[in-house]
Sequence to fold (283 residues):
Amino acid sequence: MTTTRSRGRSVGAQRVALWIGLTLGAIFAGFPALWMLLSSFKPNTEIFQFPPTFLPDTFTIGAYTDILTNPEKLRFFINSYLVAGAVVLLTLLAGIMAGYALSRFQFPLKSLLNTVVISVQAVPPITLLIPYFGLVVWLKLYDSLWALMLTYMVATIPYAILMMTGYFNTIPRELDEAVKVDGGNTMRTLWQVLVPIARPGIVSVGAYTFMVAWNEFLFALTLTQSRENRTVPVGIQLLMGEHSFKWSEMMAMSVLGCLPVLVLFLIFQRQFVSGMTAGAVKS
Fold:
């Protein structure tokens, strides 16, 4: 009886400690986002006041109005959508086809190709900034959205290949053989049979790729110059003037910039998690 009670107390203490840890973690992660959201409804002067206030004394949507009625600032969002959308589509196309080939076929230098793909993932992107800049200038793509698309895909395609290869490895090969028995070719096997089954993996790769392309700042700042080719992260930085900071607009644009990623994750949450776990395990 005493042993049972002590075990019950131990389990209860562990649960309490777990809930306390989760609560503190949620506060630590959520408080900055909540502060950003509330600050976006404050006038710029109120943000600078000391001591700072958590809730707005004067509630205003002026920062959102200034952004949504300004064609130049709206252009930042259009550019981000164009770049992120193109990168997602091209990355998924390359990742699906390369992942299928690596999962289902044997060919020369396959092991070397796998090693190269993994090695590219291990290279810090910042070390490639100057080589990319020289290459983009040589290709005459500087200050264009094409430059951003190409550089982002260098980072996203290897990840997509690894994830899709792992996910295709979890799908039984008997499905491929059944399609061949019915007279189907390789492309039919891939696009009509395996791709629908691999939808969770595709969604997880697409969501990750979108987040990378949408949030990237360093290459977008370096490889573009004119305001009509800037993206949202760089647009936020441009609100920091030489003599004044438009903090309320920075917060509002940050909130608007977070919305696509948040909505994307909420819509595909289950598939995103299942795709990440399945694609990370090699059968």
Summary: DSSP finds 14 helices and no strands in the chain. Residues 2-39 form the longest helix (38 residues). Residues 279-283 have pLDDT under 50 and may be disordered.
